Amino acid sequence: MDRIITAVLVGAGNRADVYATAAEKYPDKIKIVGIVEPDAARRELMREKHRVPEENCFSSVEEFVAREKFADAVINGTMDSLHVKTSLPTLERGYDLLLEKPFAVNEGEMRALCECAERCGRRVVICHVLRYTDFYRAVKAASAEIGSIISVEMCEHVNYHHMAVSYVRGKWRSEKICMAPMLLAKSCHDIDIMLWMMRGVRPVSVASFGSDFQFGRERKPEGAGSRCMADCKFVDDCIFSAKSNYLSAVRWGQYVWRCLDGEEATDERKAESLRTDNEYGRCVWDFDRDGNVDHQTVIVNFENGAVGSFSMIGGSAKSERNIHIVGTRGEVKGTFEDSRFVVRKMAPDTKAGYTETVHDLRVGGDMIGARGGHGGGDEHLVLDFVDYLNGHEASESCATLRDSMMSHLTVFRAEEARRLGAVVSIWR
Question: Looking at the structure, do residues 246 and 347 belong to the same domain, yes or no?
Fold first, then answer.
């Protein structure tokens, strides 16, 4: 019989909280027994939520690893730039690891983590949650029916208010802040899915193009103020207005109102914060984005001659992920948020020249509450990690450190290709 896996949360933010939810829903499979978090309020919140003893709560990783090992694994949900720094000591202490993506923000960090995991003999799984969604698992299964894959075309549309809150006003706007370009921070999920669909065929080279088309002070409308609700005449008309996006509409509160932790967050107090000291109340055109992009296209060449393309476009009306796989015997085409895809197979003896089967999974898309985050992928990921630690063979969806290293390296090379305006070899 499988044992209950015990885990310590390193970082008590949104992602770690989401993964830890599995412990509440499946107490016979996983139990949270420790918290590592420098913010005392968040640490206490998670401690109470999971009934963790006071002696198992720590303000730093250094304090945590000074203790003898007392759990099976660590769930690391820290910020991108802290992933490797906080993971190396836990691996050396003997913990297996479930690590949020991107697991490293540069090639040097990536190789350091891989070397440490191998030297310590620890199991590391990266949180590429899209692999675990019903949609992408079904698409991958269907792709086996269409012959050899010639092309994988993918596109992620990041809607305008998500773009503004996370990648313009938020902590992912600049490499100086989060240490990761947007392609890595937002879309290493998608590059991973592309390589997963082509599993067994190595990517060999990459080209990429992209820029910041919409933001920056030089594009600021004439007469716009510095803060939407304090001195801007466009406050009621601008699509990026803090008033319409964060007060009139109820969205992105986990980011926008974090500055009010511990206060009574009344509508009046929220409005005051946007007028005065809340970063999310500033004009979107006033932020330094450090050369980051709002759109980017990546073209990957595989060793067998197949190609993959991925476009990240920030600023659409609706968020959407699309995929179109073309093989020698047919094609698979679908949209993640619709939970729907179609399989077309070549049929020369029919009037249309093909047959078509529609698959409607009806499971909801990204962040549908009834299914959990990422269309159910978050929950499936944690349960698969538990099975893996219990000695079961890694599932097809499992993103081991070596799997993820390939997609991360492809992203690093794509960024290099974009900056150089060149085709770059992945394995040099």
Answer: no
Whether the CB-CB separation of 205 and 425 falls below 8 Å is answered with: yes
Structure-token pair, residue 408: 């991360």
Q: What is the DSSP letter of 1?
A: -
pLDDT (tens digit per residue) in 29-86: 999 999 999 999 899 999 999 999 999 999 999 999 999 999 999 999 999 999 999 9
**What is residue 363's predicted lDDT score, i.e. its pLDDT?**
60
CA 77 to chain centre: 11
The CA distance from 294 to 281, in Å, is 20
Q: How many CA atoms lie within 13 A of 199 on its CB side?
A: 17
Question: Checking phi first, is residue 179 left (phi over 0); if not, alpha (psi -120 to 50) or beta?
Answer: left
Residue type, 260: L
Same domain, 197 and 273: no
Q: Let me know if 61 is exposed, middle or buried by CB neighbors in 10 A (0-12, 13-18, 19+).
A: buried
Total tally of structural domains belonging to the chain? 3
Domain around 268? 217-286
Question: 132 with 397: CB under 8 angstroms?
Answer: yes
